Amino acid sequence: MAIFLMDEHQHCVFMNEAAEELTGYRLQEAMGRPLHDVVHHQHPDGRPYPIEDCPIDRAFPERGRMRGEEVFVHKDGHFYPVAFTASPIAGDDGQPVGTIIEVRDLTEDKAREAALRESEGRFRNMADHAPVMMWVTDPTGCCTYLNRQWYEFTGQTAAEAEGYGWLEATHPEDRELAERAFTHANSGRTSFRIEYRLRHASGAYRWAIDAASPRFGDDGEFLGYVGSVIDIDERREAEEKLALNEEQLRLALEVAEIGQWDVDHASGRMFWPPRVKAMFGISPDVPVTLDDFLDGVHPEDRERTRAAYEAASDPDLRALYDVEYRTVGKEDGIIRWVAAKGRGLFNAQGTCFRVIGTAIDVTERKASEIRLRELNERLEFEVTERTAERNRVWEMSGDLLAILGFDGRPKVINPAWEITLGRDMDTLLNLSFREQIHPDDHKAGEDALRRLLRGEAVERFEHRLAHADGSWRWISWTFVPEGDVFYAVGRDVTPEKEAAEELENAQEALRQSQKMEAMGQLTGGVAHDFNNLLTPIVGSLDLLQRKGLGGEREQRLIEGALQSADRARTLVQRLLAFARRQPLQPAAVDVVKLVDGMADLLASTTGPQVRVVVEVADDLPPAKADPNQLEMALLNLGVNARDAMPQGGTLRITATRESVRSPRGALKRGHDVRLSVADTGVGMDEPTLARAIEPFFSTKGIGKGTGLGLSMAHGLAAQLGGALTIHSREGVGTNVELWLPISTMVPDTEKASDARVFTSDARGLALLVDDEEVVRASTADMLVEFGYEVQEADSGEAALALIAQGIRPDLLVTDHLMPGMNGVELASTLRERFPELPVLVYPGMQRSRGSLPACRALQSRSEAPNWRSASQHLWRTERCIPKRHSGRALIENL
After folding, report:
1. For residue 291, what are the contacts with CB-CB under 8 A and spacing of at least 6?
2. Domain architecture of the chain: domains with CATH
3. Which single residue of 106, 140, 434, 508 could bond 81 by disulfide (Cβ 3.0 to 4.6 Å)?
């Protein structure tokens, strides 16, 4: 034992020889130094060792006795473990004066412990990886170790298995036997081997063999047992199955009526049980010989059976006796089929002394085979017929049938491919599926192929295949994978696709028509209300201008207001034309003459940078149209064309006769005059073209267009029973076509005769009927100015009530469109009572400055008959009053 004596400052004052040998330091070297400096100034890895972490240095005298283990550093630098005891030393006064430290080298103890741990580790590693369950007990019989296989097999935890916990995993019926066998062996310290059932982690019990041997120490001390447990449940099950199989074999032979036979080849005696005798029609108690056997075989099978028996008993051949033959019953004469097998037994000299085997009555089986053969022949015939039918279906089917590899190349195709795709069979077989599919369908085809590779069937897969003429055919496929190929059935659905596309186009056209109809209704309503507001404004401004109120500046302002109102009137006219509510005067129009007359005006309107080309057929029939509105539409289309050619270009106007055989969009079946206005301008893209005829839609920018030019032209054509079509491409130009029905009337080439302008003052009572108060008020002012006395009524019914009260009008001025009785009905009623009554009917949607000169013309009644005829013509035809016509022009138009 190494001893160190420290003073009250923990400095070394003494160390014995054992301490010197232990540390490598002499006493003189350690005197006056802390023990920490001498023996443990660093960790084994070289890190500094703080004093406060050293258990020895912490054992100051005032702390009492301390024990522990420490690592010392020898003077030569090696480390070694030690066990120490540090005890304080008290002086006479009881105060600590130093510490005595006892140290023992633990190097050998630690080496033994490491070796033991290593040995235990090897054992545990070996045991945990052993293919059997292993266990270790202490001398009392308690389990101290169970390997991993035990826990995996039983599902127990370490807490459940320790001690005698292994008994808890034993079957309740085997627990007492197993415990008694273990206790008996443990008391005698002898080996043992027992079989019992252990509970598996699954909950089932399995048979196991538990074998163990006692273990002893070097001094003969009994240390406990080391044992192993082997799962033998499968072996037990196999043994039970073997016993069961043997019993089943015995029963099978009995139940299957298999007979055994044994022939003493040397003497010819035979052992035949009753079952074999019955196969030959022999009673059970009748003895038989080998000759009886051969005589009982059917004559046709006898020689073949004899040859098989001789081959089995021949020492050189030793063949297997395996033959089927017929027997003829010796006592009952019944023919039976027997299947026999056997082998010869030979002695050391090679002589056959016995032939043994089995025999089975297979009469029923043979009958079944005959029936089966007949059925097979019939099935083969039916298969042949069905194969021929399948081949006919293959050849005649209109569907595309094929067998293809997963590389996409067809292996076999039917003739429908040639008919559907217009290519010969060799060409189609040399093209892969990908080479025939439309490029846009490649990805979908690859997705379908991946599904087939996963073993999935693909149904209703559609893509396009190339036709020989360059077109594409839509095919609907069903693919079914089978091994390294897949079967394909395809149907040409191109007609269905085209029909669906036509239906979709028709539905889109219907939606567009409904949209335009709704917009037309809205536009017409707005125009009607706007016109009602505009009429009193125009009338009032006209009165102010005629009276010459104000100075030159005021007259200029009134003229500017009238010009703006005139522009508003033009806007209303276009809105009404788009809404198809513009009152028209359809007539037979000579389109050639109209276009020629408009050419100079269009040329001056479009400017010098635009070349105007007119191409019209000489034999063009008259068209049904309103010439004034048609001229306005043609002028609007020319202005649009000019605006589309800012750098100049060509404006081409053509007129041809066309026949529409089948309806196309807005075009109806019939004979038309096609008036085309084409330019070489910027053109329109698809979105712009789709909205071109919408009202107020314009590409010219704010303040540069109303967006109603094309809308008016569309409404005009539709109202006349024709159509408007537009063709345009960006950078190429636009072609607008007006399709007008051919008129059955002859164009009127006579000019209207001039009528005189009456300037004499009008006298009398004017009955004014209008449901709009503001319109009625302005019109009344005009009539008063012309010298009439005015009686107002807000409806036809109110006017008739005034007549009933006794008034007699000299002039009737009435709105056409009114709630209840309209203007024409009112005029007809009054003309029945007053045949000479002058009448002026103005349509409510077209009131404008024309009303004023019309009223001026009515100032004179000296030519009443002329006015009667004029007014009669007016209300009968419900003709609109043009906006800027004078009274003379009014009469000309009437």
Report:
1. 268
2. 2-105 (3.30.450.20), 112-237 (3.30.450.20), 256-361 (3.30.450.20), 397-492 (3.30.450.20), 497-572 (no CATH), 584-741 (3.30.565.10), 765-893 (3.40.50.2300)
3. 106
